[in-house]
Amino acid sequence: MIIFSLIYFLLSVIYTLICVIIAFPVYPFIRIFSKRKAKYYVHTMAQFWGRGLMKMAFISFKVEGKENYDPNKTYILTPNHQSAFDIFACFSIFKKSYAFVSKDTYGKVPLIGAGMSLANYIFVKRGTVGAVKSIDDMEERLKNNTSVVIYPEGTRSETGEIKKPKRGILKITERCPDVEVLPVVIYGTRSIMKARTMTIHPFKKIKVRFLKPFYFKDIEGDDNAKLDYWYKIMTDNYNDLKNK
Predict the structure, then answer these.
(1) Helix 168-175 vs helix 128-143: angle between axes, to the nearest 10 degrees?
(2) Among 26, 100, 178, 208, which residue has the least CB neighbours within 10 Å?
């Protein structure tokens, strides 16, 4: 696997550079006519990039619950997080326009960070001011009919099991109570590349299940009860996919 991993990372760097060379020079010309279309163009290139990285590792998908996901609607998309490949998986399964919510450290990665900024993705900075700014940004995207992809667990699960969500997910749902939350269970990305490792395991199959969308405002109880609701349905469905 070491040899494959080295070849994969070499090809992924070359592939990323090609995508950047294609995307960046075209962006200014599109922006002259429409800022929105320019952002969507970069986002489309990011989707192309992410899907390509999955194909380079020979990854296949089995998707369930497609009837619960309408790409023409605006959602707060809440997948679980096990691996860096979750991001590439999201590029493969989510359609049309959406904005990732990411740690600001990714915004400092050469080329990748610039592309994320041009695609109008959202960076979360540490501290109260940074957290409030990110909530403002999410609210702005949602009110402009752009879905938001946020990992409620906050960070990757090193064990693979679903982690309890952070309270931040409730902040944006309080701001946008009429936007549906769409839980998305992803199983199998950890078998491709575990957290804190660089070894790639190709020819894996990822299982994805779109659950029924809901509103946090409809869940009875306090904040803990609302968070527990997300945690339970995600855990139950994750274990079901795991045992299939």
Answers:
(1) 40
(2) 178
